[in-house]
């Protein structure tokens, strides 16, 4: 079986040496995944979900949120593209993992976090009512692409407010899902602030790509909205690495959900 995710807090500080004989998945299992896991939630809720699924409970119902990149623009006819499709394929075929995961891609082209705050709750109720994990992948469009949404009137930047509304809607569900920030080609300050405030996990693909062996061709250049299929495949593998880790301690009693902090 696959090894549990290492808990070394300093793992992200070491750029692993290139090894042209290993696959990208082997690189993730060695040090690439820990390098990408930029922020680790202290809640332990994802571990509880993994334990429940491993014990025969419900599978992880995963919803992906994003724009055209997450929807698949730029994939062409490539198989297992966009990255949520790669994630679903890995979940269906990985014989080394005990994880049980179902993936629901709710990405909508041309949208941003502030574009979906009103429509997301009913869409979740209709499509994934038992959602347990939300992968928040609006790094491309929240970075700069939707100035008309985020700069209105005397307000210079509404991205933090939009992130706050979205997260409070998600985390007020019963039970609240685990929300994971996906950083693609780079971070978004509003997302980082929200992750810190609401204690969210952050997966930074760009950090894993920076340390990957060059032959994987998984580099995602900044300001490129629609990366090639090789990036989608690598990002899907990274998210699978994160979700499919074997639980390390299932003896703890399930914790009560902590109250939400004040708004940002």
Can you walk me through this structure?
The chain has 264 residues and is α/β, with parallel strands linked by helices. The protein contains 12 helices and 6 strands. A 6-stranded mixed β-sheet has the order 1-6-5-4-2-3, with helices on both faces. Helix 4 packs across helix 12 and helix 9 packs parallel to helix 10. The radius of gyration is 18 Å and the shape is globular. The N terminus is likely disordered.
Number of helices: 12
Mean pLDDT: 87
**Extended strand count:** 6
Q: Note the main sheet.
A: 6 strands, mixed
Keywords:
264 residues, six-stranded mixed β-sheet, single chain, disordered N terminus, alpha/beta
Secondary-structure map:
Blueprint: H1 24-36, E1 37-39, H2 45-54, E2 60-66, H3 68-71, H4 83-93, E3 101-105, H5 113-116, H6 120-127, E4 133-137, H7 139-145, H8 147-150, H9 159-171, E5 178-183, H10 189-198, E6 201-204, H11 205-211, H12 229-243
Helix pairs in contact: 1-11, 1-12, 4-12, 9-10
């Amino acid at each position: 079986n696959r090894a549990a995710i290492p808990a070394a807090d300093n793992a992200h500080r070491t750029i692993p040496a290139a090894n042209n004989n290993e696959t990208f998945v082997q690189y993730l299992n060695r040090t690439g995944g820990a390098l990408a896991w930029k922020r680790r939630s202290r809640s332990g809720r994802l571990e509880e979900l993994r334990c429940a699924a491993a014990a025969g409970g419900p599978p992880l119902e995963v919803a992906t949120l994003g724009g055209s990149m997450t929807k698949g623009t730029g994939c062409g006819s490539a198989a297992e593209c966009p990255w949520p499709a790669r994630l679903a394929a890995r979940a269906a075929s990985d014989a080394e993992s005990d994880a049980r995961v179902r993936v629901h891609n709710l990405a909508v082209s041309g949208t941003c976090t502030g574009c979906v705050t009103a429509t997301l709750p009913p869409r979740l109720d209709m499509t994934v009512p038992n959602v347990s994990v939300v992968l928040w992948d609006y790094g491309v469009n929240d970075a700069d692409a939707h100035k008309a949404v985020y700069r209105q009137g005397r307000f210079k930047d509404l991205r933090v407010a939009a992130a706050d509304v979205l997260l409070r809607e998600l985390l007020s569900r019963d039970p609240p899902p685990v929300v994971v920030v996906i950083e693609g080609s780079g971070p978004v300050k509003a997302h980082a602030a929200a992750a810190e405030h609401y204690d969210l996990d952050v997966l930074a693909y760009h950090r894993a790509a920076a340390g990957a062996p060059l032959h994987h061709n998984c580099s995602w250049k900044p300001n490129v909205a629609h990366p090639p299929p090789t990036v989608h495949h690598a990002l899907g593998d990274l998210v699978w690495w994160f979700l499919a880790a074997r639980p390390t301690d299932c003896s703890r009693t399930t914790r009560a959900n902590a109250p939400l902090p004040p708004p940002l």
